[in-house]
Amino acid sequence: MNSQAKPTVELKNVGTNWTVVARLAWRYLWRNYRRTLIMLAAISIGVWAMIFMTALTRGMVDDMIESSVKTFLGHVQIHHPSYRDDPSVNNSMPAPSDALQDYLDASSLNWGSRVRVPAVVSSERESIGVLLMGVEPEKEKMLSKVDSQISSGRFLESTEDRGIVIGAKLARRLDTELGKRIVVMSQDPDNNIADRGFRIVGIYSAEIAAQEEQYVFVGLATAQAMLNIDNQISELEIQGSDYRYVDELLTQVSILEPDQEVLPWTSVDPYMESLLNVMDSAIYIYIVVIFLVLSFGLVNTLVMAVFERVREIGLMLALGMRPNAILRQILLETFYLLVLGLLLGNLLVLITVWPIRDGIDVSIVAEGMAMMGGGSTIYPAVYSQDVFVANSVVIVLGLIAAIFPAFRASRYDPVRALNKS
Description:
The protein is of the alpha+beta class. The protein has 16 helices and 12 strands. It has helices at 2-14, 18-29, 33-73, 98-106, 137-143, 168-174, 209-212, 220-227, 247-256, 265-268, 270-308, 310-318, 323-353, 366-371, 384-410, 414-418; strands spanning 76-79, 110-122, 127-135, 150-153, 163-167, 181-187, 193-204, 215-219, 235-239, 261-264, 360-361, 377-378. The strands form 2 sheets. Strands 1, 2, 3, 4, 5, 6, 7, 8, 9 and 10 form a 10-stranded mixed sheet that branches.
């Protein structure tokens, strides 16, 4: 009698003994190892697809936004409060205060002042409207790509440089070339014509051809002297370390420049902000959709696993194992399966992303990428929050998918389960 009662007591205690339930779940997981391996392969490939495609999308979006940041956008811009409504010399502002300069220099941030006003460029044969950019050459090299895009000649050497840098497309439209002179005309604060002749010292070729006929560059001091605005500037651009996190920088700059309009890049270029928000939403939808497809296979596998063990489950219930213990055992089997699949999937991501960390050449579709503001190379970007979201979705939805078969198994009638053929 004592020997027959002992197993019943132990099985009753299984309901409260997580160690025993966990051991049973692990052993049952590998009873049909072929099915387990197939499901592991499906989960790991699904996880890899989620994170890898997300990394490519992130890389593409990052490249587009960084290209925009390097196209005179920056992370934070400072203007006269009326400048964006009327970008004329009348809405210029003083040079940055000593307090702001000290803060920016101490923070090791890239920053620079510009004069940016509408102008007309004239050659012997043509006149074209452009944006005149008076820049600080050494700082501009850190803020934009113009210096690296010089295809012939040189970039500006100082703020007093008497030369001008124009785009290749603008040079063709003006029917001019390196070394020739052109005339730049704009308007000074007294509404008088301000003009000056410049010799072309450099021609640049931008990634987006439209920029080549939109911007011309001269030294900051030269532009200020031409426009009669002393030390006034149109804007000050600041670049932080990450375009996604500019709130702290924005707050500090706003405190130091309370009389001017201080804006983040998202306000200066709402289109890029919309693109970022759409991509973020699309990525999370993509992750959920991928796993929903995967979950059908997972549920089918769990249902079949439970169906094959009806008599075993009935026997354990008949011997006194509690239904809650059956429920926990099947959920633990699912948890083990999901965790192993996640480990393999994340490892697969590392194996596939590491070799292409230096970029994927997509020059075959370079024109299409340029239209969207991207370059000819995509650098995969694996973000920790994307990995966390993908792994969390797999665990949470996987366990939710396992609840039905686990609950069904725990509610079997022992007599009927034992008699099931």
